Amino acid sequence: MFFTAPALASARQALTRTSTLAHAGRRLQISRTPTTTSFSAPTTGLFRSQRNSLAPFSTTSALLHSKRKRPGPNEGFEVNFITQDGEKVTVRAHEGESLLDVAWANDLDLEGACEASLACSTCHLILDEASFDKLEEPCDEENDMLDLAFGLTDTSRLGCQVIMNKDLDGVTARMPSATRNMYVDGAKPKHH
């Protein structure tokens, strides 16, 4: 893929701003600095390097995927998952975690193909009625995705949109027997 000169100039400006902000953050001794990821893109003409024909491109990534210690037996909140096979799995969750994150952290088979961007329905869960009634109404985007979900019920929600708090302690979430998989041949995304 080739980028136009204006696109490369914009990327270089973003890189300069990122470097300047990172340098300013070090001067102010900010404890949490953003992480950066580098990409390379083929260039032509004006931006071609003699040593390397790939120009660096950098983006700043959010600090969202850090490893968290799982809550102990008397910490956090209880979540009961009913798997596709009917097995009940009880786990603990931190406040503020989505049910999708809790399932991933405990190696449960809940897909989440779009990684919580409200672009699929593969994290569809069926909640117990008492817990469902404690939640706010789903937003329009969630309702649109739920319309695509396999086995939709009156208490269906997307796991990525159900955020754990004290009111949901003891929630029971049943995984439907199937999902509408966006990937070919049943492939599943690797969670990071």
Structure description:
With about 190 residues, the chain is α+β, with helices and mostly antiparallel strands. The protein has four helices and seven strands, in the order αββββαβααββ. The strands form two sheets. A five-stranded mixed β-sheet has the order 4-3-7-5-6. A hairpin with a 5-residue loop joins strand 3 and strand 4 (about 90-95). It is globular and about 35 Å long. Belongs to the adrenodoxin/putidaredoxin family. One of its GO terms (biological process) is P450-containing electron transport chain. GO terms for molecular function: 2 iron, 2 sulfur cluster binding; electron transfer activity; metal ion binding. It comes from Actinomortierella ambigua. Keywords: 2Fe-2S, Iron, Iron-sulfur, Metal-binding.
